[in-house]
Design a protein that fits this description.
Elements (H helix, E strand, L loop, with lengths): L1 H29 L14 H5 L8 E3 L3 E4 L3 E4 L9 E7 L8 E8 L4 E4 L1 E3 L4 E3 L1 E3 L9 E7 L5 E9 L2 E10 L1
Antiparallel strand pairs: 1-2, 2-3, 3-4, 4-10, 5-6, 5-9, 5-11, 7-8, 7-10, 11-12
Length: 172
């Protein structure tokens, strides 16, 4: 009788340990974010980890999508994985004559990608120079955008190497 009780406790313990290890491994894998080697050095893992996925992009100013009075994008109203023209609008102090860096993060795959496309070099790029005021924004930038796969995306924006804002948007 003691042997049966001992065996049950031993088996239960082994099952519990295995279950805990599997769950622990899954959660470690789930949170694994790797920044690509060619990404700008100012991109931090903490920027990715602090994304507020509940703060979805909204429509404003007759066709802009983004975060009102911070980032507005024209052309992102029907986002898809095909190459598209988007015009970025930013509001803020000391951002004139700056460079905008945009990286796309997809949580399902834990992948980070450049989404700006340069027609001249036929390459994906991380950064592009911002232009003058336009459509009420302090600066703007026309660009070609290519997002590699459908799903929820966080578009992290940096101005001259400083984190600026994140636009959370679904790409079809």
């Amino acid at each position: 009788m003691k042997r049966v009780v001992f065996l049950k406790i031993w088996i239960s313990s082994i099952v519990y340990i295995c279950f805990t290890l599997v769950l622990g491994a899954c959660s470690l894998e789930e949170n694994k974010v790797t920044i690509p080697e060619d990404a700008p050095e100012f991109v931090k893992k903490s920027d990715i980890e602090s994304i507020n996925w509940e703060n979805k992009a909204v429509k404003f100013n007759d066709g802009m999508i983004g975060n009102k009075h911070k980032v507005g994008i024209i052309g992102a109203n029907q986002p898809n994985t095909n190459e598209q023209k988007w015009m970025w609008h930013l509001w803020g102090e000391d951002i004139q004559n700056a460079t905008l860096t945009v990286l796309g993060y997809q949580p399902e795959s834990n992948e980070i990608h450049p989404i700006l496309f340069d027609h001249g070099s036929e390459q994906m790029i991380w950064s592009q120079k911002l232009g003058p005021p336009h459509n009420g924004a302090d600066v703007h930038m026309p660009s070609m955008v290519s997002v590699p796969k459908a799903g929820d995306w966080a578009l992290l924006l940096y101005v001259d190497g400083e984190y600026f804002d994140t636009v959370v948007h679904e790409i079809n």
